[in-house]
């Protein structure tokens, strides 16, 4: 009787579904650690999320929407057990900057809708980067740009919160100068009750942090100032409060797919997505290294992207990785991302059960929470320190910092990135090229011009100290031709140009064509071109351009010393003996000695 073949179905879980790994060797002790971390972070998170929502120009309750959804989704689909995803000060500020450029009014229905659209676009960009494994592009934003922007951005955040702290509205912009002038001009409108509440909240947060980082100072400030506002009816004395807060999540709604508006938002969305990735990747990588964890950046980017897409359907705004909350998870010894799931769940419980309790929460207290988080980030002295280390990096950081005074934040950071990349490209367009000779003491090959040592009149020995590509190929060509011309003007009988390729790790099509042209032009002038130390990654590219058909095998050497030995055999030894006053190479001695023997004889 025939047997029906047994069919085996193998189910594999894609890279983007990794939460099954959490439960490998998961124990009761691990759960207790995750539970303590989750509860502690949630106590800090709830008031912080509402405060950051105001920073994004959103109603405070949307901070809880974003915190609830983004934290859980990013934890489930991410890679780091410590990274806390949700509302982040700089990401909120950048997001507001994008919408300010559209001339929208904060906290209006239109603003909320387009902020959700921005979150959707940010999520799509991050997921695309993850799927295409393009996470390396965040490295295009240099540390100097990040440093300049962070310091200036912190100033923008601080200034924007002084309006809530003093009790009067400020100009709706992220331009530092505009906000500062408006702040000063309205100081006479300061509400003393609002200012008192704000100062008290800040003092409670500051005092708690001095006692222990684990004390939820923000939560204490929120509870104390809310009770004071309710007890003394401070809202009737001009203290702005959060007011009615709806319970639960709003019904899921697709953000408005206005393609004309989206076209004008893609630039800003890209900046928000990439800057947020810098924060998230840096935090997750740093903590993974400290804990000895395996970490997948593309998996993390997928989680970040999916979290932003998810919040976009619930009136959320762009989310990112938080350094303070992630560090707290690490300090509390979270064992798995379950800690973040617990944090997000507690935010959800607060949202569904305790939302009405925020009615009397003063906005000045939320401003104090934001101020306490960003005030330490205002460090223009770091720009001066960077300038002392590297002037160009300092200029880039300073330019990024100064740009924030006059233009939207996302534009300022874009300008910083362009200038930074431009400076890098400019440096590579004019690489350092060294003329080599042999040191008479050490017998090593060194910079002849720097040490003011003689060169061989018959060999122009050149070393480009950078890869050769379309941006610098012509410069390398002109430099070598100029050096040859300089030798000829000094009546030196140049026979060879020897190019040391040791530092050339890459060469593109333009570079190979330029090298071939150089060989041809020099040969027409009666000068041969020899090469030493061509890398195994570079030679095939030259070979593809017909290098082996133009340059003889006996002019390609594996090392500098070997090249000198090979080329010296074909030099004009009579010139060496009778005309050249130098002993540049050891081989020169053999010729000079013959002259001495002839004279002695």
Q: Can you walk me through this structure?
A:
α1 packs across α8, α2 packs antiparallel against α12 and α14 runs antiparallel to α15. A six-stranded mixed beta sheet has the order 4-3-5-6-7-8. It has a two-stranded antiparallel ribbon with strand order 1-2. The chain folds into two domains: 354 residues, no CATH class; 168 residues, Transcription Regulator spoIIAA. The protein has 24 helices and eight strands. The radius of gyration is 33 Å and the shape is elongated. It has 601 residues and is mainly alpha-helical.
What is the domain tally? 2
Poorly predicted ranges: 1-14, 597-601
Overall pLDDT confidence: 87
For the largest sheet, list the strands in their spatial order.
4-3-5-6-7-8
Beta-strand level of the residues, as a percent range?
5-15%
Distance between the termini: 109 Å
Shape: elongated
- The total of helices stands at 24
Instruction: Name the helicity range.
Output: 55-70%
Radius of gyration: 33 Å
Backbone structural class: mainly alpha
Number of beta-strand segments: 8
Largest sheet: 6 strands, mixed
